[in-house]
Design brief:
With about 300 residues, the chain is of the alpha/beta class. Helices cover about 35% and strands about 25% of the residues. It has two domains: about 230 residues, Rossmann fold, CATH 3.40.50.300; about 60 residues, Alpha-Beta Plaits, CATH 3.30.70.100. The strands form three sheets. The protein has a six-stranded mixed beta sheet, with helices on both faces. It has a four-stranded antiparallel beta sheet with strand order 2-1-4-5. A hairpin with a 2-residue loop joins strand 1 and strand 2. Helix 4 packs across helix 5 and helix 5 runs parallel beside helix 6. The longest helix is centred in the middle third of the chain and has 18 residues.
């Protein structure tokens, strides 16, 4: 079950990004970015190519230093107490580093030794990502979806409270995408893990995430619950015989209108529609189609970024 935004107010943030800024020469890559992540939520991070997504992620996990700003993970300052902060964090930035000539188990054993994690953790994370039955086969025989799940298993070694994933569904077929979505939702809902996902798959983010942030040209434009971002503009969509006359009648009633794809879109709720529909019919206008239209996350994203696509 998805969290309500008010439900987060009683929880301590897992991650706090405060006024993160990164400049290279005179170019500002990330500009005063702030957000908080909470236990049990999947948080989506969206932006067009060059928006600053990957740079932000690299600052969150200490791969690059911010020009200014602060990252706190599980109460630990990332700069002052890096090891403690990263013990709380599992991450995949870009593609997971896997050895294809080794088995899945051997890959996990290798990373477990690097992290000082006991071997019994390997069985636990393999079960979590539904790979226990293929763990002793070479990674070179795995599908792309299986390799992505093995990468997530690697990030889960050590039982982190925060999981940061950069494009976890990249290149997957619909079945693989669904598997990753269900896995991440289960980790958040059943284990109260905080999951941060950067993705260009807007429809998938809409299904997967509780909250999202939209970053554009280095700045956060919107942060909020997915349901709020996609429902703050409700319209009725009409297909009528005379759009111009129907628009005039709606405007006489102070209803805001717009036209898209030969449809008349009205800024109004369903329950307010019957009087207008009667007026249209009485005026001789045929009404062929009426439906409620809720703005999708993709439409909200394109509106916020001026039409730039996600990358």
């Amino acid at each position: 079950m998805r969290h309500s935004i008010t439900g987060y107010s009683t929880l301590a943030p897992t991650l706090i990004a405060s006024h993160l800024t990164k400049t290279i020469g005179k170019r500002v890559i990330v500009d005063d970015v702030s957000f908080e992540l909470f236990p049990g939520e999947v948080f989506g991070f969206l932006g067009p190519n060059g928006a600053g997504k990957t740079t932000t992620i690299r600052m969150l996990v200490g791969l690059i230093e911010p020009t200014s700003g602060q990252v706190t993970i599980c109460g630990h300052d990332l700069v002052k107490d890096f090891e403690a902060a990263m013990r709380c964090t599992g991450c995949i930035v870009e593609n997971p580093d896997l050895y294809r000539f080794m088995t899945g188990r051997e890959n996990l054993e290798h990373f477990a030794r690097m992290l000082g994690v006991r071997d019994k953790e390997i069985e636990r994370v393999a079960e979590l990502v539904s790979l226990a039955h293929r763990l002793d086969q070479r990674v070179g025989t795995y599908s792309l979806g299986m390799r992505q799940r093995l990468g997530i298993a690697q990030a889960l070694l050590g039982n982190p409270k925060l999981l940061i994933l950069d494009e976890p569904a990249n290149g997957l077929d619909p079945a693989g995408i669904r598997e990753i979505r269900e896995l991440l939702r289960n980790l958040a809902e059943e284990r109260a893990m905080t999951v941060f996902v950067s993705s260009h798959l807007l429809a998938e983010i809409e299904l997967m995430c509780d909250r999202v942030a939209i970053i554009h040209r280095g700045r956060i434009l919107h942060t909020g619950a997915v349901r709020d971002l996609i429902s703050n503009q409700r319209e009725l969509e009409l297909r009528v015989s005379d759009i111009a006359r129907a628009t005039a009648i709606a405007n006489e009633r102070s209803i805001v209108t717009r036209v898209a794809n030969d449809r008349l879109l009205l800024a109004m709720e369903e329950e307010d529609a019957p009087p207008l529909l009667r007026a249209l019919i009485e005026d001789g206008i045929d009404v062929f189609h009426v439906q409620r239209k809720v703005q999708t996350l993709e439409e909200r994203f394109l509106e916020a970024t001026g039409g730039e696509t996600v990358g």
